[in-house]
Every structure is written in structure tokens, then in C-alpha cells.
Amino acid sequence: MIICNLSGRCLISFHTSKAESDTALLATWPVVMLLYPLYASVIAIESPGKEDDEQWLAYWILYSFLTLTEMVFESVLEWIPIWYSVKLLFIAWLVLPQFKGASFIYERGSKRLPEGQRVELVDPVLLHS
User: Fold this and answer.
1) What is d(CA 11, CA 4) in angstroms, rounded to the nearest whole number?
2) How far apart, in Å, are the Cα atoms of 25 and each of 84, 119, 128?
3) In the chain, how many domains are there?
4) Domain assignment of residue 23, given as a range
5) Family, per the entry (predicted)?
6) How far apart are CA 72 and CA 99, in angstroms?
7) Is residue 51 part of a domain?
């Protein structure tokens, strides 16, 4: 079981029963994946800097992509017993300020593509104006 506080310090405990582990995972899930990112996104919107905006926009893009992928491959993923623990660790890496995993993936992925290879997205709001 992994327990993290808001300052980012984490404790890993391997001495839990299956029921305790499942309960802790279910309790941790919304905090790591939704509540803290929502809070941090609001703070980022209100801050003058751009770096935190990039981190949280990248997080929500990756979270959406992961959720959609998980929906498509649900029947396969349910046969992998550690999938939810791995997903939680990955999301924690994306979210925690010490790692800034979402920004890391954004920097390594989209910004390294030459201008001609980037996908240009059209804003649907602008199409109707």
C-alpha cells in the first residue's frame, strides 16, 4: 500500500491484507486522480505563470487518454491483477509536484515533433462563429 500526504512524502507498506489493500486503493483513487488535480488546476488557472498550466492541461489530456484506452481494453485489463495498482502509481507520477510526469511526457512527446508533424487541432467554438 502506498500512502502519500499533500507535501508529497510517500510511505510504502507491504504488510496488509487483500481487503485492506483494496479499501486503501479505493479511498486513495479519487484523491490522486481527481481531487488534487482539480484543486491544482484551479490554482494554475489563477496563477500568472504558464508552466503550471502546461502541467495540468497535459495531465487532463493524459488522464482522458488513459481512461478511454482503459474503456476499450477493459476486458483484457481486468485479467491483469496489478493493473489498478500500476495505474495508481502512474497517475501519482503524473500528478505529484516532485515528478511533474505530465509535463515530462508533454515535453518529450509533442514539443520534440517538428512543426510540420504536429497535429493542428481546430477549436470547435471558433468554427461556429
Assistant:
1) 6
2) 8, 37, 44
3) 1
4) 2-110
5) Belongs to the DP1 family.
6) 28
7) yes
